[in-house]
Protein: Glycogen debranching protein
Amino acid sequence: MRNPPLHRYATRPGLYFTDDGGADVVVRSETADQVWLCVLEPIDKPSAFFQDAIRLFSDPNTSFIQQIHEFPVCTRILEHLYLRETLFRMTGPNYGLWYVHLPKAWDGMQYGYRVDGAWDPKHGVRFNPYKFLLDPYGKGIEGSMNLDPAAFSYQCAVQDRKVIGSAYGAMSTIDSLGHVPVSVAIDDRDVHKHEGDPDHPHVPWRKTVIYEMHVKGFTANAPWLPEELRGTYAGLAHPITLAYLQNLGVTSIELLPIQAKQDELFLQEHGRKNYWGYSTLSYFSPEPTYATKAAQEKGATAVRQEVIDMVRALHEAGFEVIMDVVYNHTCEGGVEGPTVCWRGLDDLAYYRHQKSNAGRLEDTTGCGNTFDFTNTHVVTFAVDSLRYWAKRIGIDGFRFDLGVTLARLNGEFTQHHPFLYALRSDLLLGNLKLIMEPWDLGNLGWRTGQFGIPFAEWNDRFRDTARTFWLEDVDGSMDYGRTSLQEMATRLCGSADLYATDPGRGATASINFVSCHDGFTLTDLTRYRSKHNEANGEHNNDGSSNNHSANFGVEGVTTEPEIIAAREQAAMNLTGMLLLSLGTPMMLAGDEFRNTQDGNNNAYCQDNELTWLNWDWLYSPQKTREMRRLETVSHLVSLRKSLDLYHHEDFFTRLTQLGLLKPSSRVKWFLPDGSSPVERDWFDLGIRSFTMRLLSNTEVDVCIVVNGVAENRDFHLPSDSTWIPKWCSAEVNGLWPGQNGHIIADHDVEDISVWMQHVQNADETVRRLAEEARAKAAATAQGNNDEATVPSSQPRSVQSHTTRTSDEESTQTAEFPVTKKTGTAAAKKDASQDQDQKLLETEQLLRVTEALNAVGRSSAEIVNNDKPVAATDSSDGSNVWTMPSLSITLMKQVQN
Structure:
């Protein structure tokens, strides 16, 4: 297809390759006096512009800026950078746009802009032609910013990594080229580029299970990957990585930002990194440091191709890919920050300025600046970027960071914002998954449930309710809690009070979560009552202090078995409520195997072992606590996906036209004695145990049984059916609902994990460990007293990891001792003591686990999704089931 003439691009900035071997280049700067396109070439190769460019030389009487004003095309040699810079004077402004036709252009060409205009920082005007600027529409990026005076548009100095100077002072005349990143052109004209692409999974909202992860952190320590693939896009696309995710059962992978990023000035001054990536440098370019070294060496085109290949691999494995995007602010920060793109192109047009002081920026993000989404061209810029990622890269959806900021008109939020309408009406974007973080730091910034169709939103009310009920109230040892039955029922039923805002808007708009990247991990929620962010260097003042967490009597790691078991069950209670509630569940990567950040609830600047997922537990030949939780969680995910009761978008409770709740034919409620709650019961804080029955006309019913008290309790389930337990949060500790007042303790547990055998089979060391573990199990089954040999030295990949000094809960440590079993060498050291050893173990087991136990179910039962029902001496078909203390259980109707 031939490219149309240049005037056809009058409303769309960017670099467009043309059939004559050149390119049309358009950039927006509404108030600049002059703009230049700058192309960089190495000086040891012939220039593509030799015939057109006038060579510039150093002239003590004429500044560089004065010289470039004289010629349409000029070039200069920068020997210290080994570069040739050729500058093309652009034509404009035409409705705020500047144009030039480049006679020659090529894939991988480095380029940028210089912009001249007024310098009046007190009125928000900061043009400085000495600053080399990125193309906002650039598809590739190379290099990074140095903490150097050259990177700032105002005169300053850097002393002891601190920037000294006033943003309202004189204009800097130091050339920033060589101290800032540059844009890279990528030729994207190939008409065959989408051939062979796999079909997008297009998972319906009602069947979606989201898994939030960091590309680097997920695979940085992955033992199944060769060193060169760890922490990369390619590592995430590796077959074993995909197999792990498939075994877990999630459907949609939500990636923390992968758009090119730059560390904020504050972090650079303190020598730290922005690990999360919520500091965008380029909205069209992928972050190059997540690519393999080989791709980085080949250039921006190879980096982008690795991202495309990763998305294709995820699609082929059946996963959707959702991108976390940050359009509320940029990496340039406040007015004291560096000038790398938007500030130098047109500060007034791109950023919101204070009405009473145009020299200062509005900040509803806490990051120093805020994009001005009242400017149509900013809205267009964001939509163009999103369409590019969706159409060219293949992204299936987007999660918008601080979404309220994107929907502020004249400073106030409105669900009728032009940007929201632009997303809704776009033929491509309107059909993708669009998720809002429904708050920001501005006035009246909490807006959960107010975005309307077709947006889903993070549900912080679900998060806080679940944490309060299962953590704060339990850890406080109170006879009553702070969460009513009405509140719990509302969250379990899809939060109709928040999301039934538009006709047809369903419960799937509620993104339910109990943990995410921002805050404690699931394990840390049960270990720490207070944040421990000292490593961030902000004196523990950063991060939220309102976490609704619990430590169960000990702050941090402990060796007390009772506390360990209580914490583990509390984590499963949260997970159970998450996956058994109506709405769209979202899990945090690593929560399924007890990942910890040592109590840091704001680890945005920790690009190290603290935030990289620790996979060392995979090496254990014994079934560790991590393996038990992993199997328990994957079992529950599978159960949710198998129940059509969750595969709809309606609320279990309905609203009348007057906005009043009315009973639903899809759900019924019961107290433990089998009676239905009366009006006063719904608000009685002393009621912490109940049964929720979900009814279906097409499949069997299920009951969700919540025992929120610290004692085993009998529940009278509906007498019109026979019920069996399918999942219980207490099973992670080896406990299971029983009848006749008894709780079943699962003693017959295999030590060998299916995850050991299948997830890790690409690594020779792991294969050897798995084989030795299986041999040991076989020897035990045959009554052989000789214990199979386990290597005394750790695998090399484990030794290379930095061990966390506080992580006493890691594999084979006191935090989750593996319960000894008859048949092991320890239990059979002396045949004459065998019986005594058994009795001792039994007594210890009963003492430690009166309500919670340290033994999980066997991996075979998890995989087969078939928990045998314990025998009972009840002959009258009684539906009285005894539920473990502090547990949530899924009971399934038995078909006659």
Q: What stands out?
A: Residues 14-185 form a domain with the Immunoglobulin-like fold (CATH 2.60.40.10). The chain has 22 helices and 39 strands. The radius of gyration is 30 Å.
